[in-house]
Write a structure and sequence with these properties.
The chain is an alpha+beta fold and 204 residues long. It has two domains: 89 residues, Alpha-Beta Plaits, CATH 3.30.70.420; 83 residues, Alpha-Beta Plaits. It is 44% helix and 28% strand. The protein contains six helices and nine strands; from the N terminus they run βααββαββαβαββαβ. The strands form two sheets. A five-stranded antiparallel beta sheet has the order 2-3-1-4-5. A four-stranded antiparallel beta sheet has the order 7-8-6-9. A hairpin with a 2-residue loop joins strand 7 and strand 8. The longest helix has 22 residues. The C terminus is likely disordered.
């Protein structure tokens, strides 16, 4: 599927029921009916006690829900249904009545709000939410870059040729990664991402 912005969440009493339902869907009715009625635009997945049906539009998602309800009823399954759409800026599944930003200005404002929330959360808990990891080609390169970053007020963890530098939101992490790529040797490998272990708030 190229488009999976909508999701039907089907919640069962336990994991076993969810696995049985997924097998049921993949074997016949939902897959066949969805292909015939929706042109093959439905994909299924499972996690824990839930099964997910992904679709490209709200109409396709609601049609998938209808088909799934019919199949589960015929096979005496009990489940709860919910429909959500993907918010590309928040990176979360939202209720259908949550409006998505449509213009460039709205998307930019939404993005800035999200960055402010990430920074505020970092400040509130005293830990950075994002980080940049850099692997330098040699120990002396790592020492030199760590010293330069610390001189600029950046906290740095250095382990031989590896550096980890905290950042308080996604934009800051990617901007810092770009800066490090410009200043580090060409062989350096630099990645920005969520911090698996939260580090002290940078305050920058």
């Amino acid at each position: 599927m190229d488009h999976d912005d909508w999701r039907v969440t089907i919640s069962f009493a336990d994991r076993l029921q969810a696995e049985r339902a997924k097998v049921l869907f993949s074997r016949h009715q939902v897959a066949e009916d969805a292909r015939r009625r929706l042109g093959g635009s439905i994909a299924a997945g499972a996690g824990g006690s839930q099964v997910f049906l992904y679709a490209g539009t709200e109409a396709a998602a609601r049609e998938a829900e209808t088909v799934a309800r019919q199949v589960l009823t015929r096979h005496h399954f009990s489940a709860e249904f919910a429909i959500h759409h993907w918010h590309p800026i928040e990176q979360t599944w939202e209720d259908p009545d949550v409006a998505l930003p449509r213009t460039s200005a709205e998307r930019q404002a939404e993005h800035q709000r999200l960055m402010a929330e990430e920074t505020a959360e970092s400040r509130a808990i005293g830990k950075a939410q994002w980080q940049v990891r850099a692997e330098l080609p040699a120990h002396q390169d790592a020492v030199a870059l760590a010293g330069k970053l610390r001189a600029a007020g950046r906290p740095v963890i250095r382990r031989w040729t590896f550096l980890v530098i905290p950042a308080d939101n996604e934009d800051e992490a990617h901007q810092l990664a770009s800066q490090i790529r410009r200043e580090a040797p060409a062989e350096a490998v630099v990645h920005a991402g969520h911090a698996p272990v939260l580090m002290p708030f940078t305050g920058m």
